[in-house]
């Protein structure tokens, strides 16, 4: 039953970057997957951040608002047993275990850029499954248009939830086509190990072309709906955080520029880089937003 993570993701797949990138190129070029993008369609060839960076500089307000709070306090969270209620406009609603959602034999490695709305970024080698695979398994009803997600509420273990920092539970949502896009994954691991608690164990969303706050952690509920779901940051400050939250260097946050970002671990002077449209995933996702005014629907 326990995952053999070294089987899932042999260390060589990220240490031996040459052969990994070649494999990634073959995958991305496969017409069966519906991708027409560049060789790095699924995984970026940018240098992944160290495990130390990825696990010590986090946003996870359930454990406090400081970047180092999750690393200090998230170990208090019990992640086993865990189940996810999948409901709303689906054919087979119910309580699903992690093994149903992300079976060992379906896990994939995806090296993705993560761009926080606060203008910092990382590159993270996730392990997970396409969200589409579980949505297809539960059966999406034709009237469904959106997918809503909720994080666990357990103040005894999530010390930040003892204070009204946010309107708990943390909630997020995607349009159905965004949710079904092959880049959208549910992650259960990173590097060759199960997801550390501070990164959203045991199951978190990863939507690499959107600001990090869309990638909701420690998910306990997934609901298919016909109207736009409540989204925590959007509801808190709609002028600053849109529902779409697509990474866009041309649409500044009211209080800071989004044109550049600081790559964590890039050194005191070396870490500044240009922010890319859709965080570098424009070839794959721009068509989802054809005809939309992205400066208004940001
Ligand atoms: N439940 C929950 N999910 C969350 C957050 C949070 O505070 N609570 N923070 C978000 C933000 S702002 C970012 S940038 C990413 C950070 O993910 P990481 O810590 O794994 O890098 O998680 C997102 N998911
Ligand atoms: Mo963020």
For this entry, give a set of tags.
alpha+beta, binds the ligand Nc1nc2c(c(=O)[nH]1)N[C@H]1C(S)=C(S)[C@@H](COP(=O)(O)O)O[C@H]1N2, 5-stranded mixed sheet, 298 residues, globular, Sulfite Oxidase, Chain A, domain 2, binds molybdenum atom
What can you tell me about this protein's structure?
The chain has one domain (5-289): Oxidoreductase, molybdopterin-binding domain (Sulfite Oxidase, Chain A, domain 2, Alpha-Beta Complex), CATH 3.90.420.10. The radius of gyration is 18 Å and the shape is globular. It has helices spanning 5-8, 12-15, 17-29, 51-56, 69-73, 98-101, 131-138, 176-180, 232-236, 282-285; strands at residues 83-88, 94-97, 108-115, 120-130, 146-151, 171-175, 185-190, 193-194, 204-206, 219-225, 260-263, 272-274. The protein is an alpha+beta fold and 298 residues long. Strands 3, 4, 7, 8, 9, 11 and 12 form a seven-stranded mixed β-sheet that branches. The chain has a five-stranded mixed β-sheet with strand order 2-1-10-5-6. It binds ligand MTE and molybdenum atom (MO). Molybdenum atom is lined by residues 59, 116-118, 212-213.
